[in-house]
Specification:
The structure is a homodimer. Chain A is mainly α. Chain A folds into 2 domains: about 5-85, Orthogonal Bundle (Arc Repressor Mutant, subunit A); about 90-165. Chain A is built from 7 helices and 3 strands; from the N terminus they run ααβααββααα. Chain A has a 3-stranded antiparallel beta sheet with strand order 1-3-2. In chain A, α1 (about 5-20) packs across α2 and α2 (about 25-35) packs across α4. The longest helix of chain A is centred in the last third of the chain and has 29 residues, at about 125-150. The radius of gyration of chain A is 21 Å and the shape is elongated. The relative contact order of chain A is 0.08. Chain A binds a DNA duplex through α4.
Chain lengths: ~170, ~170
Amino acid sequence: MQYQEAKDKFISTWGSLGSLWGINKAMAQIQALLFISTKPLSMEDIMHDLKISRGNTSMNLRQLMDWGIVTKVLVSGERKEFFTTEKDVQELARIVAKERSRREIKPVIKVLDEVSSIENDGTEKTKELIKQTKALKELSDDLDTLMNKLVNQKQNWLTKSVFKLIK
Amino acid sequence: MQYQEAKDKFISTWGSLGSLWGINKAMAQIQALLFISTKPLSMEDIMHDLKISRGNTSMNLRQLMDWGIVTKVLVSGERKEFFTTEKDVQELARIVAKERSRREIKPVIKVLDEVSSIENDGTEKTKELIKQTKALKELSDDLDTLMNKLVNQKQNWLTKSVFKLIK
DNA sequence: TTAAACTTTCAGTAATTATTGAAAGTTAAA
DNA sequence: TTTAACTTTCAATAATTACTGAAAGTTTAA
């Protein structure tokens, strides 16, 4: 396998993975492209490389910046804007975990909390609803806390401490 | 908030969460409905409660069974089939984690492995591709292993051991 | 067997989501 | 200022994904 083939394979795999995670294809592909690029890329570079439109590129770059995964960089002597992504995988994981917690997990926990707090009228079905949503809420809380803890351990959090403790 | 409102809220929240996780809305809603039901439900029950077609119900029940989250139960004296879902949240989490690992994470790791194993021709861009995909592969491997370890600890794996160790 | 009760399949259609491209907006060099 | 270089926005459209309902398939009671 040669460079170009490997690059295409990486970008397309990363792209389709993205859609499974609530990130759209173009967004994931732009991130992948920047991730393996040796230097910041302009919007022009990106749209040509991925064969997507200017509008699409602009919108998805913006979303990546909202996520905090991509940043603008100024290249001296150049009028146009260049973009780069976080290159450290651990830091990347940290950002993604934090954002997913904020955008998805926290709101669900809130709803579970509301639902499990309804008045118990003593009927079977109400008891079951309360019991099950409460259990789900507690699990979600624990997982969210664990994820945030893991992710806040700076440097090698995975391979060091945690990882070994579990055996 | 009364029972019916709480139930609807739970089902619709769970449904929209599902789509963020690569599970479609109907599939997640069926699971939610079964999860808070006090007894197994028939296809008829489900389609009426969620207001979805017979075909849709059938297809999504099948997928839930493929995931191992829902099972058929025989109700004596009844001709039709009834369905129930795993009621224990920990066990549910275990199944979901295992399936996601198998369906999504493992295949990506395989591609990352292939891509990071291309011949190093010494160019900058090849070196960068190899370095970055290798880092990604290692992180994915670690996360996958961690997830599977966590998930195989029977009984209260979260709140017990792991959770406290990390502080 | 047969036929009623039930489930699955799948072509057609609806709903949702992503993408384009051109016009409007912004910036900074001349 | 003006204007050329560049970016953003957004209505129209394309692509994808989910859903329906009726026909075909299966099972079991009589």
